[in-house]
Amino acid sequence: MDKMWAGRFAKALDKTADDFNSSLHFDCKMYKQDIIGSMAHAAMLCHKNIITKDDFKKISSTLSDILVDIESGNLSFDSDAEDIHMFVEAELTKRIGDTGKRLHTARSRNDQVAVDIRLYLRDKSNEIIKLLKNLLDVIVKKAEENADAIMPGYTHLQRAQPITFAHHIMAYAMMFKRDIERIEDAVKRMNVCPLGSCALAGTTYDTDRDFTAQKLGFSSISLNSIDGVSDRDFCVELLSAYATIMMHLSRFSEEIILWSSWEFKFIELDDSYTTGSSIMPQKKNPDIAELVRGKTGRVYGDLMAMLTVLKGIPLAYNKDMQEDKEAIFDAVDTVIQCLNVFPPMLSGATVLKDNMLKAAQKGFINATDLADYLTKKGLPFRSAYKISGQIVFECIEKNLTLETLSLEEYKAHSDLFESDVYTAIDLKVCVEKRTSKGGTSAASLKEQIDFIKSV
Questions:
Q1: Catalytic residue ranges
Q2: Least confident segment among 9-18, 126-135, 283-292
Q3: I need a labelling partner for 9 at 20 to 30 A (CA). Which of 96, 213, 298, 441 fits?
Q4: What span, in angstroms and rounded, lies between the C-alpha atoms of 331 and 24?
């Protein structure tokens, strides 16, 4: 295949250099967006009488045929093509001759790729948002099923205060809701059409950029042609949002891995989302959660790669910017892959409520409630805190719990203790008493669930 730019050159590009220069093997992902963008561009050229209606009809219908042929497998990508733009244009020209050569009037590959990647990322971001909403549905369902499952809440991975399993996983729902908002916010800034910026300085043709932008569903056009072709801020923003999603999935995966271990045994993962060992028959490994945790590093790397590529290049377009696609494509694919496998893994997990409750009963996680009990009877909190700490120490020494310590032993520390102390430190009561907004009580949990359901 002859290069579209071959007229200027006396020699063909070296084969090794040509392979190095080519991006078709990864930017072919944007074939649909490239064709849709080209159809909108052709419509604008016709609208402004830059090409005839007959030429537009030929170009548009042939581009539609090319799209169908690619998606049906009847047309394969030509490895000799430099990129997806050149492949589509060459195929168009092959089918309709000189008419196809009119398509590239009043545009450059610089603004063409800029619009393609925006269209591609807009489509993929919408797909990711749908997957996040599906994950929220799974979390909410799991929370509703386990609203009464008392477990230890942790700080520093030490048992801290009693909560419910539902309250714990709803924290992740809040994270994923913010992830949706981050993507939506980034897409708003990305939804600006650069097509018509041409190479960097605009064009001498009487074009209508607003017409093209409207055709492609953009909210506005880029107001500076140099910025139009060189801006990749939206890639950085989306990569940051994707990396944050992966960070949240990784934290959740870490807890699932811990909870499914024999040391915790708070949940049992379904067999279909675990693997065994080649030599240890008792093993049931949480490989899916571990892979999600591991793949987080890939997306972090993609973000850093993008920032590094962009940090030192002058305006406007530079070939370095070809390196944006593999990073963003890898991040998109990784996030989608993880969001496809994570919800069914979580949905299929069995919550072992009795084990959670037993763990909650052993860690003195109602010690704060013991201090609150004394405070509500008039003792300053710091004094109450000290007495409660002394009682915990005594329980440890005597191998007792706060529930099994006798009233006489309580009174040895303070006359304020009465028999109602046992009600005050009952774990179910401790959970339900936390009625402050955002707390672990049933009323607060319902409010959280209703909030997420409204997303």
A1: 156, 277
A2: 9-18
A3: 96
A4: 18
